[in-house]
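Running this now, will post back.
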Amino acid sequence: MAGRAPAHWWRTLLLGAVQGLTEFLPVSSSGHLVLAERLLGLAPSGLSFEVGLHAGTLVAVVAAYRADLAAMLRPCRVEGGEGAVAEPSYREVGRGLPVRLLVASLPAAVAGLAWGGVVERLFASLPAVAVAWCGAGALLVLAGRLPAGRRRAEELRLRDLLWIGALQALALAPGFSRSGATIAGGLWRGLSGEQAARFAFLLSLPAVGGALLLQLPAWWQDGGTALSAVPAAVVAAATGFLAIRWCAARTAALGTSGFGYYCLALGGLCLARAVLTGEWV
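Update: finished.
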């Protein structure tokens, strides 16, 4: 949905920082962008600006997990007999992360195609965002009380992937953190904190990449220019990279409860504001 880009450069950079930090911290980037635009008195960001922000967050994930991505792109090889040429083992490749990431992405993809119009309308409703914040906060608090897991992402089975994918589908609603939902889902399926964060952030590649691809045709019809979004994209990439590293370390050491209480508090404040102002749209 096209609108206008932020009027002042500092607001552009601020929204880029909000996107980068909250895309990967489990507190909802979409909810914070809605709130930031309300507080700054901005119209919804233009399509070119949204494309730039998504591109920035993709760069952050690629930079943070470049070693994992390089390993995924490198085909596994098996040794043949003496003097035989080694061939890629597609069976072994299928056991790795790429297939798991695609399977876990399916529920959100189906939900997005089926209910994309409904989700789009939720961005105009701060009370709806607040309710989603509270739901995500409760999920993170409960996940933070789980016993420490020891599984690795490569050990996830089909039912585990569908569980994590279903939680990611809930995060289509603004205010329900995608990274928070997938980290919590991983913890529920026995992943360690570090592995849950790793899988959640790698899972953002098909999620954010798919959203970017869906936006490109409309962006091209709008003229295909995104120069005004470049500074915000750079800020989103830099802050996103830092957020990934910090969140992975914090989740491994301290769990997700702190993020959950933050979401509950923020959602509660927004709901209180809606009651006081009568804003139930």
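The two ends are 19 Å apart (CA to CA). More later if anyone needs it.
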